[in-house]
Structure to design on (68 residues):
Protein backbone atom coordinates (compact mmCIF):
# COMPACT_ATOMS: atom_id res chain seq x y z
CA UNK A 1 0.00 0.00 0.00
CA UNK A 2 1.13 3.49 -0.66
CA UNK A 3 2.59 5.82 1.88
CA UNK A 4 -0.18 8.31 1.13
CA UNK A 5 -2.84 5.80 2.22
CA UNK A 6 -1.04 5.05 5.50
CA UNK A 7 -0.65 8.75 6.25
CA UNK A 8 -4.39 9.22 5.60
CA UNK A 9 -5.26 6.23 7.77
CA UNK A 10 -3.06 7.26 10.69
CA UNK A 11 -3.18 11.06 10.68
CA UNK A 12 -6.60 12.09 9.33
CA UNK A 13 -9.95 12.31 11.10
CA UNK A 14 -11.52 10.10 8.45
CA UNK A 15 -8.83 7.50 9.10
CA UNK A 16 -9.68 7.59 12.79
CA UNK A 17 -13.31 6.81 11.97
CA UNK A 18 -12.23 3.90 9.81
CA UNK A 19 -9.99 2.49 12.54
CA UNK A 20 -12.80 2.76 15.10
CA UNK A 21 -15.18 1.05 12.66
CA UNK A 22 -12.74 -1.79 12.09
CA UNK A 23 -12.27 -2.28 15.84
CA UNK A 24 -16.03 -2.34 16.43
CA UNK A 25 -16.41 -4.82 13.58
CA UNK A 26 -13.81 -7.13 15.12
CA UNK A 27 -15.54 -7.08 18.51
CA UNK A 28 -18.96 -7.70 16.94
CA UNK A 29 -17.58 -10.62 14.92
CA UNK A 30 -15.96 -12.17 18.00
CA UNK A 31 -19.15 -11.75 20.04
CA UNK A 32 -21.27 -13.34 17.31
CA UNK A 33 -18.80 -16.20 16.97
CA UNK A 34 -18.97 -16.85 20.73
CA UNK A 35 -22.77 -16.64 20.65
CA UNK A 36 -22.95 -19.11 17.79
CA UNK A 37 -20.51 -21.47 19.45
CA UNK A 38 -21.96 -21.46 22.98
CA UNK A 39 -25.53 -20.32 22.40
CA UNK A 40 -27.35 -19.00 25.45
CA UNK A 41 -24.39 -19.84 27.69
CA UNK A 42 -22.08 -17.30 26.01
CA UNK A 43 -20.75 -14.72 28.44
CA UNK A 44 -18.06 -13.06 26.37
CA UNK A 45 -20.33 -10.10 25.62
CA UNK A 46 -19.84 -8.94 29.21
CA UNK A 47 -16.11 -8.59 28.60
CA UNK A 48 -16.75 -6.63 25.42
CA UNK A 49 -19.22 -4.40 27.24
CA UNK A 50 -16.57 -3.69 29.88
CA UNK A 51 -13.99 -2.86 27.22
CA UNK A 52 -16.45 -0.59 25.40
CA UNK A 53 -17.30 1.23 28.63
CA UNK A 54 -13.60 1.66 29.44
CA UNK A 55 -12.98 3.16 26.00
CA UNK A 56 -16.01 5.47 26.35
CA UNK A 57 -14.78 6.61 29.76
CA UNK A 58 -11.30 7.31 28.39
CA UNK A 59 -12.77 9.26 25.48
CA UNK A 60 -14.96 11.32 27.83
CA UNK A 61 -11.94 12.06 30.02
CA UNK A 62 -9.95 13.13 26.97
CA UNK A 63 -12.71 15.44 25.77
CA UNK A 64 -13.12 17.03 29.20
CA UNK A 65 -9.36 17.37 29.59
CA UNK A 66 -9.08 19.15 26.23
CA UNK A 67 -11.78 21.63 27.27
CA UNK A 68 -9.91 22.61 30.44
Amino acid sequence: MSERFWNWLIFSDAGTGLRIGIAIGIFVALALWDLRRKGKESRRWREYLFLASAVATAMAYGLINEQI
About this structure: The chain has three helices and no strands. Helices lie at 3-11, 13-38, 44-67. The chain has a mean pLDDT of 85. Residues 13-38 form the longest helix (26 residues).
